[in-house]
Structures are given as structure tokens and as C-alpha cells.
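Bench log. Compound arrived from synthesis this morning; before running ITC I wanted a structural hypothesis for how 2-acetamido-2-deoxy-beta-D-glucopyranose sits in the protein. Inputs:
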Amino acid sequence: MAEEKSLEEVLSLPILLADRVSKSAREAEASKLECLDLAKQVDRLSQMLRAAVRLPWTASQSHQTLYEQPIRRIVADVAKNLDRALTLVRKCKHSGVLRQVFSITTTADFRKVSNLLESSIGDMKWLLSIYDFDNGTNLSLPPIASNDPILSWVWAHTAMLHMGQPKDRTDAALELASLAKDNDRNKKIIVDEGGVPPLLKLLNNANSNEPNSAISVEAQIAAATALFNIVTNRDRVRYVVDTHGVPIIVHVLTESTIKVQIPVANLVARMAELDPLAQEEFARENVTRPLVSSLAMDTILDDPNFLQSGKTTIHSLVQLAGQTTQPLKSNHTGSFSYNSDGSGRSGSGSGGGSSTTNSHYHYNSSNIRKERDNETPEVKQKVKVSCAQALWKLSKGSLVNSRKITETKGLLCLAKMIEFEKDELQLNCLMTVMEIAAVAENNTDLRRAAFKPSSPPAKAVLDQLLRVIQDGDSWTLQIPAIKAIGCLARTFPARETRIIGPLVLQLGNKNVDVATEAAIALKKFVCPENFNCLEHSKAILEFDGVPPLMKLLRANDWAQMHSVVLLCYLALNVGNSKALEQARALNALEGAARSVVAQNPGLRDLIVKAMDHLTLYQPGVPHPHMQPHLL
Ligand SMILES: *[C@@H]1O[C@H](CO)[C@@H](O)[C@H](O)[C@H]1NC(C)=O
Ligand SMILES: *[C@@H]1O[C@H](CO)[C@@H](O)[C@H](O)[C@H]1NC(C)=O
Ligand SMILES: *[C@@H]1O[C@H](CO)[C@@H](O)[C@H](O)[C@H]1NC(C)=O
Ligand SMILES: *[C@@H]1O[C@H](CO)[C@@H](O)[C@H](O)[C@H]1NC(C)=O
Ligand SMILES: *[C@@H]1O[C@H](CO)[C@@H](O)[C@H](O)[C@H]1NC(C)=O
């Protein structure tokens, strides 16, 4: 890759060219008047080019980085036009006969080049004006961008973002945010023209002298919003990751006030959703910590003892597990409501044992705490919704994030939220649990570490999943809860009937989707990969699962497929049962087999095996000799 020329080099070429044009024009023998006019235009250009040479110096004087994109683009165009001017004036070197030998210049040639130079003059004038930060943003269009105003607006706002006054930077970020929101092309232009690095910079140290001042908060919100509007596809997320955006984003999330955390958490959620690499990068920066901390704000989990080195003591967890009926919300008389020994305590003094608080929790420093206590409940609710959504998107398909959430007090916190919150916050927390469970389904280590049924956080989560399933208020909640339990099927001991009963009940849910999810979950209890499949199969029969299953078999294709599979496993595990015989399971299987196999050829063997097995155990039924060729 060729190294990029420095800005000085880029500018020196047209300055040199301008001098040559000027000299040649003044020495011309033919078309003297026209040449002189060109020389005047070129002199103006030359002046402005020399002014541009001072820009890097001006920027370095104020310790700023110069925004170079528009300079490079416009100056390259100016050089091209100067080149044409040079060719033209050289043709005028000789007069009379000699001139004829070379070529003839016409008035039209001069007019054309003169117009080009006039455009360049307009471009340079505009260019210098956008680096004049005392005069506001110049929204007039330079000739080079007359067909594409967006380009020049992005240039002007980005220049302001780099080098303007704090207030102007915030406005520039808001303008970019609004341009980015309009369409994909604008987003691409902003990225291509270098808008992302100064947005990250604004986000990072909006006003480092006065962090959390009003002006700083506004700037950070504007920057986070702009970035959020820009990163709507994987390429652009990747660009932010490659620009080292992730550590900045996590740092801001950890250190800033609630109002800033909201858009930043939304940004995290969007990036994590669109790019697995971003998920990994966020994991490396431990983003789950500030997210869980904010989620736990003002709850009994918000106790410094819980934050100690990111771990919880077994003692405190056991205490907590017994406190499930405690109201979650403190009433803001202090920073937390309950000490882990259950005694009420107020004030933010963290007491003896917690002086070793991990540095990652500096977020909980008293200043921020004070500020946070002044926020309205609505704002606090909003940040929790956003943080929970970020945790959801981070955990989806990500072992490392799922592990990090469960390693701290994350699971317990999620359980509490599912217990006491409602609407979007409750749903986001439930979705997070579901995604973590889905990851744990295929990862023995995580499953054992996080979901051992005897561990208090796992127990708290399980209680809530079961409650949501049994409450049955809303299928949007029931479905993820059922899915989560299904994913954890391999963690339950043989006689864990607390789980099977509620799931079996849902097989009969009026909502076919809920009932089908229950069948899918139960399938994971009775499939051969489940060590306890025999006991679980018996439990399903004991809870009278067969009749609703038979009904579900006739609901729709999707429901039919999953209930057939569940029925097959039951047949293979407990084929000799009265329940199956009474329900005429063999007939039902026979009836459904053909259409299920037509759509899912992979199920053929399982179904044939199950039918053979049922035939074996049901002497009453004449051996149909399930003709496999019929399938
Ligand atoms: C904006 O740029 C134009 C040239 O395109 C210039 O004439 C005008 O003076 C500039 N306005 C400001 C406020 O600098
Ligand atoms: C601001 O722009 C105006 C043109 O709109 C110009 O005349 C003036 O010189 C500029 N002011 C400064 C400080 O550059
Ligand atoms: C994230 O947490 C781990 C474990 O506590 C720690 O070793 C690591 O340094 C942290 N990373 C960052 C970037 O803070
Ligand atoms: C808040 O605390 C006061 C006493 O400090 C108490 O009377 C009140 O019931 C509490 N409110 C809630 C919602 O817990
Ligand atoms: C996890 O395992 C289940 C069955 O054990 C399988 O159906 C699923 O596709 C697996 N998911 C991933 C992401 O590997």
C-alpha cells in the first residue's frame, strides 16, 4: 500500500503549478489579455492555497488534529484545473506563424478554463471558511459539491466536530446524527469522510475538565446518538470496532451519568446484535459489569458487598435467595436498602469490609451516586431497559459474554428483574436469561457453573421462569421462559417434577405457539441425549401429558412435527404405558407420519422405530406391520 502523502506535499504540487501558470501567462505572446485574466485568477488561488498550508500549523497550536478529507479532495481538484490552465497558457507562448504550428487557442478554450478556475476559487473560499470556527458552520455549497450537498455538509460538520468550540461540536454531532438517520447513503458518506473518529473522541472526553457537566453530558449524548444512527449494518459496526471504539464506549458507560448511559447502552446493544466480533470485543472490555451494575441500581443487589471484586459470597446469596419477597425498589433514602445480613441500612458509607472495592466499580463513586439519586424514576427505568437490552444482545450466541454475566451477580439480578419488573424491562431480562440458557445448552462448563440447580442464582432464575410460565399472563413472556427451561433440560435431576408439571400443563395452552414450545422443551427432557430421559418420560405420563399432546398433534404443521417427535421419544422410553395405549398413540402416529416425513425426511427413522416399538407393546392392536415403504 502506498503511503499517503502528507498534507504539505499534497498542497505543494498545486502551489508550484499555480506559480508556473502565473509565470507562463505573463510571458505569453499570444492572447495576452486572456492570459492575464487567467493569471489573476490563479494568483487568487495561489493565495488561498498558501493559506491552507497554515491550517495544520493552526491546528497543532491548539493541540487538535486537522480534519484533512475535504482539503485533500478539493486541492486535488484544484491541481487538476491548474494543470489545464498551464496547458492552455503554454500554447500562447509564441505569436504569429510559430503559433500556428502548435495549435490554435480559441476564446471558448479560455472561457472553459476560466470557469474551472472560478469553481476552484469558490471551492477554496468555502474550504477556508469551514476551518474558520468563529463563524459557525458554513452551509452554503461549494461548487465541487453542488450536485451533492450532503458531502459538503458532512465535511463542514465534521470539521466543526474536530476543531470547533464545545457547544458547536455538540451541534455538529447532532447534525450528523440527523443526517445519518435519513438514509444509508448518508451514513456511508459520514464513515467515508472520517466522521466516526471525532464522534468517538467527543464521546470519550466531551469536556475532560468538567466531566459530567451539563455541556459534557449533552455532547456525549449527541455523539452516542450519532454513532447509534450510523452503525446500522455489520460493516459499519466493524469500522467502529476497528477504530478502537469499543474500549471508549465501555469506558464511557462505566464512568458517565445515567443520561449518557442510556444512548451508550443502546449503542452497545445495536453493535452486539449486528456483529459477533463486536460481542467479543465488548466481552474483552468487561462491558457486562457496568451494564449489570446499572441494572441493579437501587435494588438490594446494589450493595457494595455484592460488588466486591465482582463476586458474591455464598452467604449473601443464600440470604438473598430467602428475600424474594422484599420489594426491589429502595426509596432513595440511601444508596441501598438492605444489607446482606438483612438489616436496614442507609447512607452510602460502605462500611468495614468493602474498602477493597474493585476499581471497575469506580462507577459507584459517591459523586455519580449522588447524581443518580437525583434522576427521576422514569430516567432510571429507561437506563435499565437499555442495559437489559444490551445484555440480551451481548449474550445471544456468545459464550464469553454469557459466562461473564453469570460469573458476577448477573443471573441473580436478572431473576430479580423478572420477578419485580414488567413490560419491556422484564422482557429484556427474560430474553437475556433465555439466550444464556441457549448458550449453556451446548456448553457443559457453563451449564454446570451457572445453572447447577442447587446454586442460589440458578434457583432464583428457575423460580422466575416457572412463575412466568405458570402465570400465563402473556405468551410473549411464556415462550422465552419455556425455551430457557428446555435449554436447561440436562441440568435437572431425575425426580425434578417441579419442572415437568408446568411444562405439561402448557401442552394444553390455547395458544398453539406456546403449546408447541412446551413440546419442544419437553422433547429435550426425554431425548436419548438426556441422561434422565426415562424418569422424565414417566413424569410426563404422570402429569397426564398424553391427551394434550394428542390434541396438539392436529394443530398445524409446525406443532405436529414437534409433537410427533415428543410422542416418538415417549413411545421409545415408556412404550408399554397404558396412557399411550389409551390415547391410541400408535394410530395417531400412523395418521401423522406421512405428512411429517414428507416435510422432514430426517425424522423417518425415528418415527418408524417408535411405531415398531409401540406395536410391540400393544398386543391389543393387530400388528399393522407398519409398512415403512408407506412413508
Ligand atoms: C461560506 O462559503 C462561501 C463560499 O462558498 C463564502 O462566500 C461565505 O462567505 C462563507 N460563509 C461564512 C459564514 O463563512
Ligand atoms: C465571517 O463570515 C463573513 C461572511 O459571511 C466574513 O465577512 C467575515 O470575515 C467572517 N468572519 C471571520 C472572523 O472570519
Ligand atoms: C476484564 O476482567 C478480567 C477479569 O476480572 C480482567 O483480568 C481484565 O483485565 C479485565 N479487562 C479489562 C479491559 O478491564
Ligand atoms: C420509604 O421510607 C419511609 C421512611 O424512611 C417509609 O415510611 C416509606 O414507607 C418508604 N417507602 C417505600 C416505598 O418503601
Ligand atoms: C445446541 O444443541 C442443540 C441440541 O443439543 C442443537 O439443536 C442446537 O442446534 C445447538 N445449537 C448450537 C448453536 O450449536
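What the model suggests: The two ends are 62 Å apart (CA to CA). Residues 331, 333 surround 2-acetamido-2-deoxy-beta-D-glucopyranose (ligand 4) (CB under 6 Å).
ITC booked for Thursday regardless.
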